[in-house]
């Protein structure tokens, strides 16, 4: 599986356009949200928005892996992969690990913008833990993107991924605080994977441990999306 992971990492790194725009888009959105309209003095808002936009950018990069997988399927790459000893679980795990390479530059780009442009200040341990938690915490969304890629056509994967991203970002509180929502919608948002994911980062900024409930919700979605990805890989054998 190590050879497969390294192969997929090399293939991913060849797409420099995706890496550049995947990191640049959330940075631009973050700077616009926090500096347009006279919000320059709200340091707490800049730090919270930095975490939310880093999380959103990580989600975009993670789920975009599915579009590449759908394209690979249409080109016959999955047929070749099935001739190897890799089982469904190992194939999905290897693709998820290799896909994490595209997530890290996005997270780092937003955090660098927060520190260098918006003047967000934290202790060194906070920056380190924040990067690690966001990097690891995005895994459920990577698996969701992979599952969509194995299950759908390239065009359908892009549409479904965008719908999922928008829903997660809004209802999960990545773009706007859940406190602004009606009570019933706030309750729904707290059970979304995006809310648990963002809570990992916000806990570091606030210097306390992530909430047990948020971690449990994120872990539950990890198992669900992981099972979906494996099921989709097996199901794709009927169409490739």
Into which percent range does the helicity of residues fall?
over 70%
- Mean pLDDT score: 85
Alpha-carbon Rg, integer: 18 Å
Total strand segments: 0
Structural class: mainly alpha
Oligomer: single chain
Number of domains: 1
* Major β-sheet annotation: none
* Overall morphology: globular
Order of helices and strands: HHHHHHHHHHH
User: Unreliable runs, pLDDT <50, ≥5 residues?
Assistant: none
Question: Beta fraction of the residues?
Answer: under 5%
Task: Give the N-to-C terminal Cα separation.
Answer: 22 Å
Discrete helix count? 11
Please give a structural write-up.
The two termini are 22 Å apart. The chain has one domain. The protein is globular, with a radius of gyration of 18 Å. It has 240 residues and is mainly α. The model has no long low-confidence stretch (mean pLDDT 85). It has helices at 2-14, 16-35, 43-75, 77-81, 88-116, 124-137, 139-151, 154-171, 183-189, 193-205, 212-236. The protein contains eleven helices and no strands. Helix 3 (43-75) runs antiparallel to helix 8 and helix 5 packs across helix 11.
Characteristic key phrases:
240 residues, mainly alpha
Topology:
Blueprint lengths: L1 H13 L1 H20 L7 H33 L1 H5 L6 H29 L7 H14 L1 H13 L2 H18 L11 H7 L3 H13 L6 H25 L4
Helix pairs in contact: 1-5, 2-3, 2-5, 3-5, 3-7, 3-8, 3-10, 5-6, 5-7, 5-11, 6-10, 7-8, 7-11, 10-11
In short:
The chain is mainly α.
